Amino acid sequence: MIRHGVPGDLEGLMALERRSFGPHEGLFSRRQIKRLLASPTAAWFIYGDYWGACCMLISANGRARWGRLYSLAVDPAHRQQGIGRKLVQAGLAWLGSQHVSGCRAEVKAGNASARHLYESLGFTEVEGLPHYYGLGGHGLRLTKKLDSPS
After folding, report:
1. What is the span of the domain harbouring residue 11?
2. What is the widest separation between alpha-carbon atoms in the chain?
3. CATH number for 141
4. What does pLDDT average to over the chain?
5. Which residue of 5, 96, 113, 142 pairs with 9 in a disulfide if CB–CB is 3.0 to 4.6 A?
6. Taking the alpha carbons of 62, 93, 51, 49 in that order, is the dihedral positive or negative?
7. Dihedral sign computed on CA atoms, order 69, 74, 18, 94
8. DSSP string, 4-70
9. Contact at 8 Å (CB) between 10 and 18?
10. Spatial contact of 66 and 109, defined as CB atoms under 8 Å apart
11. 150 within a domain of the structure (yes/no)
């Protein structure tokens, strides 16, 4: 039920973004999604008929490679069904297969359900991010160590 995203998923992902986020909640633009779908350092994981999607990125600085959980969107009509967990797990498995040693993420400080999900998946809150999501929209930075496959 989870598949990798391809450029043809642009419209479905745009619709999911609009259902999942408001304009001041990190809504991706069409240009951002199109660029991410074409990027060799990004991978999209799509659940069902755009019931949820997760975007992972790989970054490097010449010495180390790490992943970033860049986006997780679950359609409000399909929340609390484990879709977010399955998507993040698929993304983390992909990062591990790419020999990435860790994953970073950001979450809104007030999003208790997302914070609980990430904690249950082994993420640790490491830093507060004042006004990360705009004035008064505080965030938290999270990290998780990954085991690369042998």
Report:
1. 2-145
2. 44
3. 3.40.630.30
4. 93
5. 5
6. positive
7. positive
8. E--GGGHHHHHHHHHHH--TTTTPPPHHHHHHHHH-TTEEEEEETTTTEEEEEEEEE-SS-EEEEEE
9. no
10. no
11. no
